Amino acid sequence: MTSRKKTPETLRSHRWFGVSDLRSFGHRSRLRQLGYDSADWAGRPVIGIVNTWSDINPCHGHLRARAVDVKRGVLQAGGLPIELPAMSLAEPIVKPSAMLYRNFLAMETEELLRSHPIDGVVLMGGCDKTTPGLLMGAISMGLPAIYVPAGPMLRGHWRGETLGSGSDAWKYWDEKRAGRIGEAEWTEIEGGIARSYGTCMVMGTAATMMAIAEALGFTLPGASSIPAVDASHSRMAAASGRRIVDMVWDDLTPARILSPAAFDNAIKVHMAMGGSTNAIIHLVAMARRAGLAIDMARFDAISRAIPVLANVRPSGRWLMEDFYYAGGLRALMGELREELDLSCVGVSGSALGAALDGARVHHPDIIRTLADPVSRAGATAVLTGNLAPRGCVMKPPAADPRLLKHCGPVLAFEDYDEMAAAVDRDDLDVTPDHVLVLKNAGPKGGPGMPEWGMLPIPKKLVRAGVRDMVRVSDGRMSGTSYGACILHVCPESFVGGPLALVRTGDRLEVDADGRRIHLHVGEEELARRRAAWTPPPARFERGWGAMYSAHVGQADEGCDFDFLTGTAPTAEPEIH
């Protein structure tokens, strides 16, 4: 005990259970009501398990069982596990967008921990918005925290083809729209593309954010790559339960883990994974919670230096299950050793360099070397110009190379409904050279910045064999998506950003290598359009939506709430 930074009397939970007064008597008697005895809590850290399991979240369908594994580990290490359910943001199900509720989960996580007698926390999630939501809340609360990633599902299968969730849905949907497959084949794909619990098994936002959590130091080494239904996943959950108890005694808080170097490591891993563009928004938000500044230029600079090493869809060939068998994230980070700050310490208590010792690549086509990458273009390009003065992003490896430098006429849509009504019309005046532009899909305009950025190719062009076009919006794109999509145009059109002024027939130029996006409309004409523009009506009049709309930041600010960023302390609750 003498080597520990904490003693039983300095545990946060001691304020609830260890004091000799009437209020603590009440707390203890209620624990006894639950069947506990003093041996369960006396001198033991209380470990919160924030679980985002729900019956309608297939990504987290196994987390109820994994919570049992975590509890086993906590008990083995001498802690008292307390499971706390939190909002489950099922990306495929929650509408209008799970992103609308990411900050809700972050607030819920922070306040669950603050209002309960919790000394340390195990965070259980994995679906796109749960990883950043949980981590943002834990960072702001400042208690020792370890993350248990849900892990990817198993590969999909159909008629001898390997299917990747999301990516192959988009692919075969276009084949169906083109008349190349029918209802019978489509139904078979529906039954074979998602075969187990777990997150999307392509390099979507879920896999990206779980890998980033590990790269930041919030998971045990290797935890983010384990398939959801693998027995190793249960063992990892139990090990995380054991580890969090030691973290409490050592007072290993997020502030001791997070640093500019840790975030640089995470961005480098993101780029090497060919990760989702959504990660930029989430990492900015997480850094701001830690009192650190990351701007869009930092992502672009690292993207230029770090090539894509993970040969995983949608930028590559393989799936996350294959990535795990090839050595997983430890192996990929091992290939990046010379680019990483190996002195960063994560939840394991060891420096990153030690955590990577022994990491090996078992399948060199799946995890490439710096000398033989999947793509040298970089996973993410940040473009600026008169259409996006605060930046926009794209994923060059997932686009048709001919479209990385393109100038064409605009076909503009004011909102998603207008776009959806038009794209299947046979008489739509559109060519493969057109640039499709969608407005009002941003943080306030969507609302919640939905994943509408992979605009559908007009049906008449799909039938003609067209599979990619330049598409521009202030929305996001699923990490499972692909194509020449320019996203996160900032400021968004809903608040009067330049995108609001674009009209059908304008010419728009995109240069991915030059990091440039330019609307070929003169400043005088843009000024006339700006003077004529009127703000749209508010999306919400009450409730969470109204609070969200009043306080959410733009994409380059991480879409966090203005009153949640920074490290200003919040007082511990008084106990009377």
From TrEMBL:
Gene Ontology molecular function: dihydroxy-acid dehydratase activity
Coiled coil segments of this chain: none
Sequence ranges assigned to domain Dihydroxy-acid/6-phosphogluconate dehydratase N-terminal in this UniProt record: 44-353
EC number: 4.2.1.9
Top-tier EC class: lyase
Keyword list, A-Z: Iron, Iron-sulfur, Lyase, Metal-binding
Dihydroxy-acid/6-phosphogluconate dehydratase C-terminal domain span: 365-559
NCBIfam families in the cross-refs: PRK06131.1 (NF004784), PRK13016.1 (NF009559), PRK13017.1 (NF009560)
PANTHER family assigned to the protein according to its UniProt record, in alphabetical order: DIHYDROXY-ACID DEHYDRATASE, HYPOTHETICAL DIHYDROXYACID DEHYDRATASE (EUROFUNG)-RELATED
Protein name: L-arabinonate dehydratase
Organism for this UniProt entry: Rhodoplanes azumiensis
Gene this protein is translated from: araD
